[in-house]
């Protein structure tokens, strides 16, 4: 193979990705991030707070802040956008063709790494294009300096994205990290890296916050502005008063910072090549471990497991009034099941939802529940109780697609009943995992908190179901929910669906009726999407 093979593979893979509607959505999200990074002068929501100040909207300030926001959010969220490259080759059987080709494993991995980076770099490019537009839109400075605006993207945004692209390749080649566990692990790891990257002693210069912050502090001192010990913050935060302005002309990177950027690039390439030690590139000749999975057999086994857990009236067993046969047998319809059909269906959906959940998982649930009864504050452990089941919730609305049962179960005559039972199964799981705070709040007559808890118990599975039905993959809910949970835990009251943010002893978040109403709207949306898909088949 020639030296151009990885580039050709990366370009071909990138072209295939940009044709998807999801790619356009990611670019629109990048535009939204640029708008958040440069809010209106009177906004109470900011990305960069320099001790109660912000820089005037010059090219240097807008370029740096937008680049920092891109490094922060694209590093964490971009991973979920690009992490499906190898799994897609496996699903589409392209991997089997590659296994028969003379393509080297290292070449394949570098090609996927470069493709991932191109996708992430294009998102950063949208930020870079949107930044000068935001400068002119805000109108605080008409002097455009392209170097001051674009240099931060090259030094701050792109190097962390190299590591993100490499991590996506690494995670896809490690069986334990390929699925939902990897999504959660990356969320935790990226948060640790990004928060640690903002500290003064961050290795390799972190994400560049320290260098920019020191330059900004020096500019404040020169202009006679004393911010005392007030912290600099990077991230979407709420401020009581609009930030005041100061003049900042950008920072000059030193040799140590530039050297750290080069080390990050080298480290990213090394991480991308590391799986060559064990990844067989779909080649059965290299042993069972070389093939990441066997989709056909795995799907067939999952079909029988799921159908076996559903009640007899869905499977079409004799004497149950059912109507659906197993794969390969013509589908026939009989009269709908009456009486206790919904409760049998709910029991079946609950067994399907919890299929394969280990005893260790339940042991953690039991430990959190016991601790929830023992802690002084009822809501202390509620965030932990309602983040632990994220991988199980993400199954809602997706299992029938992922295991090839959508057509079979879609023929069931009471689609609405089946979807409601699926949601009810998710609500049951949510109630069980968060039961301790509910009992504690009821025992202390904290009815406002109990109502907020009830709203959250309805909303979480409704969100999982709606995203699962609409997007047909478990990954979207995992990403969206982890972000929502993180913001709620960090005191963003407007997004507090659990009732853990308190003001005057009462939940400071949205009304439980509003949360419950949103849950019902999401369920209705899921039903509408599933009905529309059924109608066009």
Automatic annotation (TrEMBL):
The question of whether Transmembrane helix is a record keyword is answered with yes
Q: Which UniProt keywords apply?
A: Membrane, Transmembrane, Transmembrane helix
Q: Which residues cross the membrane?
A: 21-39, 59-82, 113-135, 147-169, 176-196, 255-279, 352-374, 380-398, 419-439, 451-470, 479-500, 512-529
- Which protein are we looking at? ABC transporter permease
What organism, scientifically named, is this protein from?
Answer: Streptosporangium amethystogenes subsp. fukuiense
Species lineage, top-down? Bacteria, Bacillati, Actinomycetota, Actinomycetes, Streptosporangiales
């Amino acid at each position: 193979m020639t030296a151009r093979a990885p580039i050709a593979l990366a370009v071909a893979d990138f072209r295939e990705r940009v044709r998807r509607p999801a790619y356009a959505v990611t670019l629109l999200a990048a535009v939204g991030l640029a708008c958040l990074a440069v809010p209106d002068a009177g906004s109470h929501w900011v990305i960069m707070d320099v001790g109660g100040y912000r820089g005037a909207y010059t090219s240097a300030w807008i370029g740096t802040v937008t680049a920092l926001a891109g490094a922060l959010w694209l590093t964490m969220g971009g991973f979920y956008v690009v992490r499906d490259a190898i799994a897609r080759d496996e699903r589409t059987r392209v991997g089997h063709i590659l296994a028969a080709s003379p393509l080297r494993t290292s070449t394949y991995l570098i090609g996927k790494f470069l493709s991932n980076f191109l996708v992430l770099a294009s998102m950063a490019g949208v930020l870079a294009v949107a930044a000068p537009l935001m400068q002119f839109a805000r109108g605080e400075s008409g002097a455009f300096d392209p170097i001051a605006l674009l240099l931060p993207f090259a030094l701050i945004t792109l190097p962390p994205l190299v590591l993100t692209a490499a991590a996506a390749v690494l995670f896809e080649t490690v069986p334990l990290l390929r699925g939902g566990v990897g999504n959660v692990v990356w969320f935790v790891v990226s948060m640790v890296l990004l928060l640690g990257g903002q500290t003064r002693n961050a290795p390799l210069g972190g994400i560049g916050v320290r260098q920019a912050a020191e330059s900004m502090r020096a500019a404040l001192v020169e202009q006679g502005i004393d911010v005392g010990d007030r912290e600099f913050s990077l991230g979407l935060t709420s401020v009581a008063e609009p930030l005041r302005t100061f003049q900042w002309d950008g920072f000059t990177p030193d040799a140590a910072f530039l050297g750290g950027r080069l080390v990050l690039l080298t480290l990213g390439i090394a991480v991308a090549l590391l799986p060559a030690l064990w990844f067989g590139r779909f080649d059965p000749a290299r042993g069972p471990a070389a093939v990441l999975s066997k989709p056909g057999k795995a799907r067939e086994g999952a079909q029988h497991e799921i159908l076996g857990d559903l009640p007899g009236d869905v499977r079409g067993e004799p004497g149950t009034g059912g109507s659906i046969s197993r794969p390969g047998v013509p589908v026939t319809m009989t009269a709908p099941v009456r009486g206790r059909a919904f409760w049998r269906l709910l029991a079946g959906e609950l067994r399907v939802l919890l299929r394969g959940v280990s005893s260790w998982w339940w042991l953690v649930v039991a430990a959190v529940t016991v601790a929830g009864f023992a802690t002084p504050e009822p809501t202390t452990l509620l965030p932990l109780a309602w983040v632990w089941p994220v991988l199980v919730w993400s199954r809602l609305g997706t299992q029938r697609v992922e295991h090839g049962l959508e057509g079979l179960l879609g023929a069931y005559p009471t689609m609405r009943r089946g979807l409601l039972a699926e949601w009810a199964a998710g609500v049951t799981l949510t109630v069980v995992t968060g039961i301790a705070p509910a009992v504690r709040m009821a025992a202390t007559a904290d009815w406002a908190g109990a109502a907020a808890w009830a709203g959250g118990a309805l909303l979480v599975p409704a969100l999982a179901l709606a995203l699962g039905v609409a997007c047909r993959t478990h990954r979207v809910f995992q990403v969206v929910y982890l972000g929502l949970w993180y913001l709620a835990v960090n005191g963003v009251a407007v997004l507090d669906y659990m009732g853990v943010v308190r003001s005057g002893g009462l939940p400071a978040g949205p009304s439980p009726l509003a949360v419950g109403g949103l849950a019902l709207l999401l369920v209705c949306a899921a039903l509408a999407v599933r009905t529309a898909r059924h109608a066009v088949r």
